[in-house]
Amino acid sequence: MNLHEYQGKDILASFGVKIQRGLVAENHKKAVEVAKQLNAETGTSWWVVKAQIHAGGRGKGGGVKLAKNLDEVESISKDIIGMMLKTPQTPPEGKKVNQVLIAEDVYYPGDSEPEEYYMSVLLNRASGRNMIMYSTEGGMDIETVAEETPHLIFTEEVDPATGLLPFQARKIAFNLGLSGKAFKEMTQFVNALYKAYVNSDSSLFEINPVLKTSDDKILAVDAKVTLDDNALFRHKDYQDLRDLREESPIEVEANAVGLNYVKLDGNVGCMVNGAGLAMGTMDLIKQSGGEPANFLDVGGTADAERVETGFRIILKDPNVKAILVNIFGGIVRCDRVAQGIVDAYQNMGDEIQVPIIVRLQGTNAVEAKQLIDDSGLDVISVVEFKEAADKVQEVLS
Ligand code: GDP
Ligand code: MN
Known about the structure:
Strand content: 15-25%
Bound molecules: guanosine-5'-diphosphate, manganese (II) ion
Radius of gyration: 26 Å
Largest sheet: 6 strands, antiparallel
């Protein structure tokens, strides 16, 4: 589950990570109100207005702007709230901004150049350990840094048995070129950040930039936080942080009924049991010259009700021109799945306007094919995987 910057920062702060402080606002009147409140709390007289969407690169897209007085807070907020913000990480049409974060200005005017660093915490799947990735080249696109100057990106792996050790935090501060007060601040920052990562059960923290202010404070200016969905049950208070407006409506609906659905850009809908087979099916569709419209894992119980729900969700995507059902009957018998497909099809009647190709393999596959062939419905049944994908291309062309 992805969070907004302001939500991520709240979590960081709750574990003692120092952040650029801010308050969220849904409209420009509220923006002025919270700007005043922030002035009272922090003394800041300049503010940054930051669009809250689930995508980075907002600064370059015009979604982060400095306001030097309350009138500017109001007018900038008015411009940003409701806009379709386009960044390299949004869909081409952009993402609608529903709220802004009004943050204290921490790049003090007139001061010498502030230092911006990059820091993330994530799991290194190869070693099975958490790692802290960091660089002196913060504030910019880290992908570009990785490509052009990879030696400027450092990593520090954490042994799960010991946790982050004091020398590791010091090494990070040293590699970032810090000394004195900033050095100490950085070791505290790293310790708090790592503690926050582990205790919030996150799968990604990306803080870009981490800022060294001219008075040597270390602050998180941005926060990209991804929580591990599988651990959400341990964090009842985080569950409300989900912003469904940021997610694809079809995916939200599918997830609500326990289907694992991801929308893609192609025209061949797929319904498959098991994530591995779903990936294989998508590959095969591509190899046969098609493009999958989605990933859909219906899981172990492919009964009539689930199949029908699956069809309905796939068909919500107007790009779908054919559906390929690819089920391996191991524990679930193919003939039962076939009956489910027939029942679902009959139940839905005219709602199905596209050809359906079914490939059932495994226990009772022959009976299953017979059942579908005898049903008299407009369903093409095949046994071989490749044949199924080729059939899809045939009906599309
Ligand atoms: P992103 O573009 O989506 O990654 O959003 P960020 O939160 O990283 O902000 C983008 C840029 O805005 C930063 O790299 C800073 O250069 C700038 N910025 C953020 N906070 C402040 C601030 O308090 N004052 C000033 N002057 N600039 C800021
Ligand atoms: Mn950023």
